[in-house]
Amino acid sequence: xxxxxxxxxxxxxxxxxxxxxxxxxxxxxxxxxxxxxxxxxxxxxxxxxxxxxxxxxxxxxxxxxxxxxxxxxxxxxxxxxxxxxxxxxxxxxxxxxxxxxxxxxxxxxxxxxxxxxxxxxxxxxxxxxxxxxxxxxxxxxxxxxxxxxxxxxxxxxxxxxxxxxxxxxxxxxxxxxxxxxxxxxxxxxxxxxxxxxxxxxxxxxxxxxxxxxxxxxxxxxxxxxxxxxxxxxxxxxxxxxxxxxxxxxxxxxxxxxxxxxxxxxxxxxxxxxxxxxxxxxxxxx
Amino acid sequence: xxxxxxxxxxxxxxxxxxxxxxxxxxxxxxxxxxxxxxxxxxxxxxxxxxxxxxxxxxxxxxxxxxxxxxxxxxxxxxxxxxxxxxxxxxxxxxxxxxxxxxxxxxxxxxxxxxxxxxxxxxxxxxxxxxxxxxxxxxxxxxxxxxxxxxxxxxxxxxxxxxxxxxxxxxxxxxxxxxxxxxxxxxxxxxxxxxxxxxxxxxxxxxxxxxxxxxxxxxxxxxxxxxxxxxxxxxxxxxxxxxxxxxxxxxxxxxxxxxxxxxxxxxxxxxxxxxxxxxxxxxxxxxxxxxxxxxxxxxxxxxxxxxxxxxxxxxxxxxxxxxxxxxxxxxxxxxxxxxxxxxxxxxxxxxxxxxxxxxxxxxxxxxxxxxxx
Lengths: 285, 372
Hints:
The complex is a heterodimer of chains A (285) and B (372).
Chain A: H1 6-33, H2 38-41, H3 55-62, E1 64-67, E2 70-73, H4 76-107, H5 113-122, H6 128-142, H7 148-173, H8 176-184, H9 189-218, H10 221-226, H11 234-237, E3 242-243, E4 246-247, H12 249-280
Antiparallel strand pairs in A: 1-2, 3-4
Helix pairs in contact in A: 1-12, 3-12, 4-7, 4-9, 5-7, 7-9, 8-9, 9-12
Chain B: E1 4-13, E2 16-26, E3 31-35, H1 42-50, E4 57-62, E5 65-66, E6 77-80, H2 92-101, H3 107-120, H4 136-148, E7 154-158, H5 166-183, E8 186-191, H6 194-200, E9 203-208, E10 211-216, H7 218-223, H8 228-233, E11 240-244, E12 247-249, E13 252-257, E14 260-263, E15 276-280, E16 285-288, E17 296-306, E18 309-316, E19 321-327, E20 336-342, E21 348-351
Parallel strand pairs in B: 3-8, 3-9, 6-7, 7-8
Antiparallel strand pairs in B: 1-2, 1-4, 4-5, 9-10, 11-15, 12-13, 13-14, 15-21, 16-20, 17-18, 17-20, 18-19
């Protein structure tokens, strides 16, 4: 790295700039659109210079969407809260259930353990639409349709396999001798799990949790079918901007900016853990 | 202090039998070395005793108490692993302290206990370091300290010197016996290094393929190996093995080496006329003047000085290569024709087909001074 020539550094800089522009452009464009009215957005050719307006954000926060054909009520802030609540709770439940399960699968080879683990993974193979109809019918029978409880339950289909399989790999990477040494020292298996296995798999658990959060946050189809307006997350709530009088690009952009902010902030904050965690398993220390 | 008894222990992994009906008794305060090639089942045996894996059959008794179904944390043993198995997220101090914490000792007791054992093993200056920041030697000592700190009556050491450099291994080979003896613990020590086995063990159990092939004092294993394989494993340079067919004349039983009749002193009546292999330790051979009774002619090929001893490679009349070892500074011969005399009392005879030693139980045990 130290012996790069000036030319090499310039070329690398240009290449990096191109990559960043390519990947960041949509986000920058959406960010700009969120400060424009529908008229300025749809102007041809598009303009880089415009008069910024906060109208889109005001509409979202107050919940009053003004269109040419009248005023609409939108529950965007409610949707945002639903997203936060559903994702956080789902990931918390999945961690609580998945981490001990992952440990069991990693450390104890019991009869059928591979089959059970694989069945759990196979939840991720099936397209969501395949299970939606029976789920809807069951949920209506059980009274779980349109409840947070029911949604969090269904979200486990997304979070649990992910956490289980990622974290299991981390537990398997911990040399069994380290845990044996702690046991022989006079500690119970539970103390060994808490004091040795959990801290050592920590980065992996954090990475799996973050990934599960992003997947849960981005989920669309489960919430669309199983929840009504007051329980819906932002992904479904964004549909409200496709109104009878046209698509409200400005509001959609503002909604996108608001809804990617939590995941973006979380990802930026946990970036170190995410990269460390997801690559640690590959190159065993 | 604790005694250990294994009764007919069997351990299988899938279809492979790792330990095959193994029984073993270790006396209170004894140091028993488990010696054997990798894959012999030494580590598995140690783990069975520690309680981290369960036997498929058989019983494990510690101090006469059946521990077969007792969990590892209640067996009260200390163990040091070959790969150290230190807790990477804890400092050396916390690593060593874990067995004391398990007993809910007070902070003061823990601190005193860790510091005294650390001082003994000369790692008191690195107690605040994480394992990552320790050298291999320090890691090894930390692992050993963790095994020792709780003064367990039964200590299991799984090849603790395997992953440290030669100099430290040599130092520790001298230090360890005293250290283990001072603590009075019963010790099971696993190693693949015959010198370590000889230096540390009150007794040595030679294992291969899940079976104990020979159990005895270091002296016995060296002087009366049960078979060719064990004779080959102990000793550096390796024992000379030559095909012979013993015969008898008026002076007793002899073998032909380079067309010279070399008479043997052991009780080898049963070997007469059979296809045998004679085992001659390099140090049981010496250069002799022509005409010495039993000395046979050879050609010197090469001489290798090894500090305290000189090893000479010689070739017999029939072209077989033999190693002769002599203490440095004693007269020998570096080239040309020479004659080699055999210390006939230490010659070993093995059956050619089975590899078993012939005429067992007749070699004098030097340590106890009686026939073993």
